[in-house]
């Protein structure tokens, strides 16, 4: 599955913006801590209390994709939806045929964890995932029938969907904090923040504040590692 990577100048600009956001967030977080106030962005972290990652790294993402290929079709595309969209598991379970625009290449999610209902965001999906969704669920046919178009694609309970994801994690030899649907969401955020403008990552993840999205800029990216290699070579 091929995903286009921005050119180096664009990626450098993105990383620069990410750095500014991370620094700004850290300053505000420190100020909030001093004043005794807290916020959702300040409390959110990509690591556990003992320092363990909550997101999948690149090698784990590849193993996850390999393990997904062995699943039954409906389970496979569900896991791919989580992996490539960064949506929450309940948001994925709410997807209907009418929510997928095959011509535009996007899926619409009603964003959860908002004070009001009806907040919808659109997230692009890889063409291969869209093609598989259409093949498995006959999306274009469903979209021509109002009753079928409004019916959820996956009729599972949340616990059943969660179990399917855990099965893939075990098959991919992924354990600990990352081995969950939330781990896939964090993985998407970390990977996207390295190559996509922060305001798009914010929109795709459905964050109300860019401060929350900026958390994903605290993970070292490829260019930061290159700087570290130069430092090691100089010693």
Characterization of this structure:
By secondary structure, the protein is mainly alpha-helical. The protein is 57% helix and 5% strand. A 3-stranded antiparallel sheet has the order 1-2-3. The protein starts with 7 loop residues before the first helix and ends with a helix. Mean pLDDT is 86; it is low at 32-42.
Q: Keyphrases for this structure?
A:
13 helices; hpI Integrase, Chain A; 235 residues; mainly alpha; three-stranded antiparallel beta sheet; single chain
Write the layout of secondary structure elements.
Layout: H1 8-35, H2 40-43, H3 58-68, H4 73-85, H5 89-93, E1 100-101, E2 106-110, E3 120-124, H6 127-137, H7 139-143, H8 146-149, H9 158-171, H10 181-195, H11 198-205, H12 210-213, H13 222-234
Antiparallel strand pairs: 1-2, 2-3
Oligomeric state of shown chains: single chain
Task: Look at the structure and give the mean pLDDT.
Answer: 86
Sheet having the most strands: 3 strands, antiparallel
Whole-Å distance between the termini?
39 Å
| Regions with little confidence, pLDDT below 50 for 5+ residues | 32-42
Can you write the helix and strand succession as a string?
HHHHHEEEHHHHHHHH
Helicity level: 55-70%
How many H/I helices?
13
Structural class: mainly alpha
The total tally of domains equals 1
- Cα-atom Rg, whole angstroms? 19 Å
Proper CATH architecture = Orthogonal Bundle
Shape: globular
Task: Kindly report the name of the CATH homologous superfamily.
Answer: Intergrase catalytic core
């Amino acid at each position: 599955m091929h995903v286009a990577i921005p050119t180096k100048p664009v990626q450098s600009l993105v990383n620069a913006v990410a750095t500014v956001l991370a620094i700004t967030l850290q300053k505000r977080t420190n100020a909030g801590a001093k004043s005794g106030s807290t916020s959702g962005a300040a409390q959110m972290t990509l690591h556990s209390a003992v320092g363990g990652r909550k997101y999948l790294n690149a090698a784990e993402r590849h193993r996850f994709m390999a393990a997904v290929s062995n699943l039954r079709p409906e389970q496979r595309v569900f896991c791919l939806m989580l992996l490539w969209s960064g949506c929450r598991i309940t948001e994925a379970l709410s997807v209907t045929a009418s929510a997928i625009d095959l011509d535009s290449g996007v899926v619409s999610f009603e964003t959860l964890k908002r004070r009001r209902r009806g907040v919808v965001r659109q997230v692009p999906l890889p063409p291969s995932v869209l093609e598989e969704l259409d093949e498995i669920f006959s999306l274009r046919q469903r979209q021509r029938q109002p009753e079928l178009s409004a019916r959820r694609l996956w009729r599972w309970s949340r616990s059943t969907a969660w179990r399917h994801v855990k099965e893939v994690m075990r098959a991919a030899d992924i354990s600990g904090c990352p081995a969950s649907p939330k781990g896939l969401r964090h993985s998407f955020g970390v990977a996207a923040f390295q190559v996509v403008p922060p305001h798009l990552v914010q929109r795709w993840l459905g964050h109300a504040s860019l401060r929350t999205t900026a958390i994903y800029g605290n993970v070292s990216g490829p260019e930061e590692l290159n700087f570290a290699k130069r430092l090691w070579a100089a010693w």
